[in-house]
Amino acid sequence: MRIMLPKFFLSRKGFELQFNWIFVLIAGAVFIAFFIALMRNHSSDVEQSSTLNARQELDSLFRVNRASVNTQKVISFSKRLDFSTNNISGYFVDGSDVWNRYDYSVIFAPKFLDGNELIIKTSSFKAPFNVMPFIFLANNDLEFVFVGSNPVLNDVFSSMPENITKRVVDGKTEMASFKNNNYDHTIFILTTDSFSGSMPLMVNFQSPYDNERVYAVVIDAAGGFADAYGQVAFYNYSKGSLQLEGQSGFLGAELLLGAVMSHNKRIYDREFQKAMNRLNLLADLQLRKVSEYSQKTQNSCKAYYDSMSESLSYVKMLSASGRPTHDEDILNLFNQIINIKQLNTALLQKTDCPLLY
Amino acid sequence: MIGDMRTRADRKAQLQMGETVFVVFIIIIIIVLGLVFYSKVREVQLKEMQRAQRISNFISLAHTLSSWPELECSVKETRDFDCIDLIKLGILGDFINQSKETDSYAFNYYQDFLRRSDIVVREIYPSPQSWTIYRNPGNRKTRDAVSLPVNIYDPISKKYAFGVLELAVYE
């Protein structure tokens, strides 16, 4: 018996109709997939572009701030910044895939900054001539707590950038019971006058999350002035108490501020060494300049220039690669810098001879 | 007659299928043209961003040079802006060249700071002369140059001269 199928299924028109629908479905799926891929690529492109812009903006800021000394500014910056703690100076912007290096600039910043803005301060390091600008970076998620009051702490307090969170407590007892305000970093600044014996137990910072959040910097300034020289001890919070990370020397108020702002011995030591390398280079140039002066000026100036040459030679030797490391080196360097300053002032006040700086 | 109807239906179906394929082809062409247009616009935008970055770097370098400890004047222990010390000028070019030969920290420092650039100081008045402080052009396509007027101060004779600082940056 022959079965008769409806004509509809026998005609090519019916077949074409079904074929059209399948074709439309496949084509539609391809288009949707294409546009979804395009949107994802675009959003990834925008994210990368935003990170690149942030990196370039920061790089430009660092370059410009090398010339704009004694300035402070607050800029919007919503990406996380990480700073390396090894011998290679670099910073990493969140979302980027490379580290940006700054081998010859001095930037004092903590290990990371994660907030909505950046506070940038620049200050010129002098020894006693202009050596280089220092850049200090912070944000409002850092809390600096000054323990006690004396000329050194007052100098550091007043030299810190504006808009930064600064607090003052009377002594170690108040430091021990200081309230945990949940900042990214809480840094206690003390001097050896207000600190004796061991660090107090911080009763409000006992959570494991407080490791890598709490720091202390203890300043031992010779003569009781920040703008002199001395030693800085770095402490970080570990296993429920502040542990000594190490000690480093400082020379002048700018380096002391750098120690406080970075509150990390490895970052500070690396930036300190860069400043010394730069001082070494400039001491060499100043020596050549003094030698020119000595040849081209009158004999009455030569005695000053000879003394200056001797001091500059010492500065050059003491700031050579890997130095200064000991207290004695820092003391000698400080004394030579003071000597050069006094000689230059004497040239200004007592003679008509060209000044060194 | 039935055969003729079937033939007509076949031809109509074939025409419609051809039409569909043609439409899809045109849509693909339009999309491709759109992508090409977008990439061209994006390329122009990226070039403009590169140029803006280049100019920003250039301006920051010029700004930094004007207060460079290696060249700045200091009269009575105060900084004098847009002023170059004549003695330092004479020393610096030789110092940078010597540091190139010894491949020292100084050479690396100046190369990192100045990169691909030429820095020349020319005295215009009273006695024309010039000093090449740094020359490192390389084989670069783009050159941006600026001349900045400066005072050239001789600390020995305590006299000023007028000159220009010519800065050219290559990218």
How would you characterize this protein structure?
The complex is a heterodimer of chains A (357) and B (171). Chain A has 357 residues and is α/β, with parallel strands linked by helices. Chain A has a domain at 273-350. Chain A has eight helices and 14 strands. In chain A, the strands form three sheets. Chain A has a six-stranded mixed β-sheet. Chain A has a four-stranded mixed β-sheet with strand order 1-7-8-5. Chain A has a four-stranded antiparallel β-sheet with strand order 4-3-2-6. In chain A, helix 7 runs antiparallel to helix 8. Chain A is flat, with a radius of gyration of 31 Å. The termini of chain A are far apart. Chain B is an alpha+beta fold. Chain B has a domain at 66-170. Chain B has three helices and six strands, in the order αββααββββ. A six-stranded mixed β-sheet of chain B has the order 1-2-5-6-3-4. The longest helix of chain B has 64 residues, at 2-65. Chain A binds chain B through residues 11-13, 15-16, 19-20, 23, 27, 34, 56, 60, 63-64, 66-69, 103-104, 129-132, 277-278, 280-282, 284-285, 288-289, 292-293, 296-297, 321, 344-345, 348, 354-355, 357, and chain B through 6, 9-10, 12-13, 16-17, 20, 24, 31, 53, 56-57, 60-61, 63-64, 66-67, 69-70, 72, 74-77, 79, 87-88, 90-92, 95, 105-106, 108-109, 112-113, 155-156, 158.
Strand percentage of chain A = 15-25%
Rg of chain A (C-alpha, Å): 31 Å
What general outline of chain A do the C-alpha atoms trace? flat
Helix-strand sequence of chain B: HEEHHEEEE
**Strands of chain B, count:** 6
SS class of chain A: alpha/beta
Oligomer: heterodimer
Distance between the termini of chain A: 118 Å
Q: Helical segment tally of chain B?
A: 3
The largest pleated sheet of chain B is described as: 6 strands, mixed
Largest sheet of chain A: 6 strands, mixed
Number of helices of chain A: 8
> Reading side by side through the largest sheet of chain A, how are the strands ordered?
10-9-11-12-13-14
Helix content of chain A: 40-55%
Helix content of chain B: 40-55%
Round the Cα radius of gyration of chain B to an integer and report it: 32 Å
Give the uncertain stretches of chain B in residue-range form: none
Mean pLDDT of chain B: 86
Determine the most extensive contact between two protein chains: A-B, 44 and 42 residues
* Bulk shape of chain B: rod-shaped
What is the N-to-C order of secondary-structure elements of chain A (H for helix, E for strand)?
A: HHEEEEEEEEEHEHEEEEHHHH
